[in-house]
Every structure is written in C-alpha cells, then in structure tokens.
Design a protein that fits this description.
The chain is α/β, with parallel strands linked by helices and about 350 residues long. It has a single domain, classed as TIM Barrel (Alpha-Beta Barrel), CATH 3.20.20.210. The strands form three sheets. Strands 1-14-13-12-11-8-7-2 form an eight-stranded parallel sheet. It has a four-stranded antiparallel sheet with strand order 3-4-5-6, with helices on one face. A hairpin with a 7-residue loop joins strand 5 and strand 6. Helix 6 crosses helix 7 and helix 8 packs parallel to helix 9. The longest helix has 24 residues. The radius of gyration is 20 Å and the shape is globular. The chain starts with 5 loop residues before the first helix and ends with a helix.
C-alpha cells in the first residue's frame, strides 16, 4: 500500500480498514519536551516531526461562562487565580504540576442559572477565527486530521466548574440540575462548532474529554450513566454523524462496566485505555473490536524502562492491530521520566511492530 496521509490513515483506522501502518498520536508533557531538548532534540524541530508521529489538529471553541479571570496571589511557589469557569485554583510554578482547586463559585443549583445564562451569551471571540484562518490552509495541505473538541460531559463540568463531590452528589440528589448542566454544555459547544462549519471550514471528526473512572472503578454505575449521561453522549455522536464526522471519546480511568452503553451510542473510537487504572486493551479488543477503534493502551509507567515497555508493546500491539482500528499511544500521556533515548527506541519499535 502507498504511504497515506495522516487524515487518510486516521479515517481508515476509524472504519477498521487496512492502512499502511498504525497511527502514532500522543501527548508529551511540557517538561518531557524540555528534557528531550536537553538530551538531544533539536531546538528548532517539533517533537512529532522529529519522531515521525502523526499530526492531528484539535480546535475547541470557548463555551465558558466567562467568569472574571484574575490573579489573587503570586509568589515563588505558586499563583492563585480565578478561571473563566469560576474556579479558584492554586497553580504551582513547577512545569508539569496539576493545579489545586481551592473553591468553585458555581457549586450548587442556585448559582447554576447564572452560569447558564452567561454560557448562552455567544460572541464572535468565542472562536479563534484569526488562528483558524491563518492555519487552516496549511493543515489541509499537509493532510492533517482535524477534530472539533466538544466541551461537555461529567468530566469537564466537575473538574473545571462545579467540583467532583458536588456533581456526584447532584447526580443522586438533583439529577434534573446535572442533566441541565450536561445539556447546556453540549448545546453551547455544538452551537459554536456549527458556526465553524457554517463558515466553510471542513473538519473530520469530533473529540470530547469525559474521564468517567478512577482506579478499578467508574465514578458512577452503568445505570446512572445510562439515565443521566448517555443521552448526551449519543446526541453528540448523532450530531457528528449527521454532518459526516467521526467521533472519539477520551476517557481515563476504569470504565469497562460502562462500555456496553458507550458503544451503543455509536462512538467509533475510545482513547486512552488506562492500563494502570485496570483497563485491559487485549480484552477490550476481543469484546468490542468489531465495533470500536482504540487509541492508547501502552502503560505510561513503563516508558522509562525500555525492556519493560518493549515487552508490553510486543504483547499488546499485534493484538490491537488485528483487523485494523488501532492508534499507538501511551495510556495517558508521556511523562518527563521518559528519556530522549528511550523515546527513540520506543518510536522505532512502534514503527517496526506497526507495519501491516
């Protein structure tokens, strides 16, 4: 088979069709890239160009309530800020740290009505039109795969606005509030995505973040997923399919109990398949490989030991490749514990194992 573009390769992977090689799409931390530069990555070369990874483009319109962003405190260790989603966060200065959520302004159903009204105040600057206009011709010429990021679901509303405990309690005690949150997030995001399509920009798919599990368990039962969240996942999938777009769900954590219903929504690809949380890529391939493509599934905790990750890749990649439908990646992201030399060895092995 002749060499395909990333776009051609990705679309065929979604459909579980033959490709020239498996796709390679991953996300190193900022600290990881800085380490690689110290260890030999040329300063003027993008990491994915150097290693020959496939390039995709993700564009996410801003459907936030546009809460006032400001700096409350700043010192040598951290900065405390308010975000456009109404959270107060402590952002540590170390390059790969996770912000600490200190407070959520929109933390109950009474305040939600204020946020909802603000989210529906559409304006042109919610979409990065200048960035899109400048880069779109290059993306198309290079054969990149283009995704619209739809910002909705359990994950983004609990982690960016309302708070985990508040959302989980609301799913039990005030389900009508939480489903209104899901609906508002999805409606506003799709409305903004539609404006991009109406302006003549052609995208290939949609992508959304919805981490629904932690280690060895989902955050909620299959019944609760089916009743409260699944209808919005299905609505997003249906919206995409009506426009000829493919769909990819990013979901970290252990979500296997939810997968029968997730697959039933019609979504075509599942990303990340987090092994360290209890997910088993080979088992999922056996159970759902005729209906679902997979992205990820190589335990990121092993990538700093080449012999261990080599054995894992040799165990998993040949199975995941069978019948098509696999994108090579870590099961989360590439941490700064991975050396430049290890990344070269891992990349070379992925290319060797990934040939059809």
């Amino acid at each position: 088979m002749a060499e395909l573009t990333t776009r051609e390769r990705m679309l065929r992977t979604y459909r579980r069709q033959d490709v020239d090689r498996i796709l390679m799409v991953d996300y190193p931390w900022a600290g990881t890239i800085e380490r690689w530069k110290r260890e030999g990555l040329p300063a003027n070369v993008a990491w994915d160009d150097y290693f020959g990874y496939d390039k995709i483009v993700q564009l996410c319109p801003d459907n936030s309530p546009r809460f006032e962003k400001k700096i409350i405190e700043k010192n040598d260790r951290y900065t405390i800020v308010t975000t456009e989603w109404g959270q107060t966060e402590r952002v540590f200065n170390s390059i790969d740290s996770t912000p600490e959520v200190l407070d959520c302004y929109y933390d109950d159903s009474d305040k939600w009505e204020e946020a909802k009204a603000r989210m529906f105040r559409y304006s042109d600057d919610r979409i990065p039109w200048d960035y899109l206009k400048e880069n779109y011709p290059k993306w198309k010429a290079e054969g990149r795969f283009l995704q619209l990021v739809v910002w909705f679901g359990f994950d983004v509303c609990h982690s960016h606005m309302i708070g985990t405990e508040n959302v989980l309690a609301g799913m039990i005690e005030e389900p009508e509030w939480i489903t209104d949150v899901f609906d508002t997030y999805l409606t506003t995001s799709l409305d903004l995505c539609q404006r991009i399509l109406d302006a003549g920009y052609e995208f290939d798919g949609i992508y959304w973040y919805d981490d629904m599990g932690y280690k060895n368990s989902p955050f909620f039962s299959p019944k609760m997923y089916r009743e409260l969240l699944k209808p919005y996942h299905k609505r997003a999938v249906d919206w995409a399919h009506e426009r000829g777009l493919v769909t990819e769900l990013h979901s970290c954590g252990f979500i296997e109990p939810l997968l029968p219903d997730v697959v039933d929504t019609g979504v075509e690809m599942l990303e990340r398949i987090e092994v360290k949380a209890g997910m088993d890529p080979r088992r999922l391939k056996t159970l759902y490989g005729d209906r679902l493509a997979f992205h990820g599934g190589i335990n990121a905790q092993l990538w700093d030991d080449f012999e261990k990750v080599k054995a894992e890749m040799e165990r998993i990649i040949p199975i995941m490749m069978e019948g098509g439908g696999y994108v090579f990646a870590s099961d989360h992201s590439i941490p700064s514990s991975v050396s430049f030399e290890n990344m070269k060895l891992i990349t070379d092995l992925a290319k060797k194992l990934g040939k059809y």
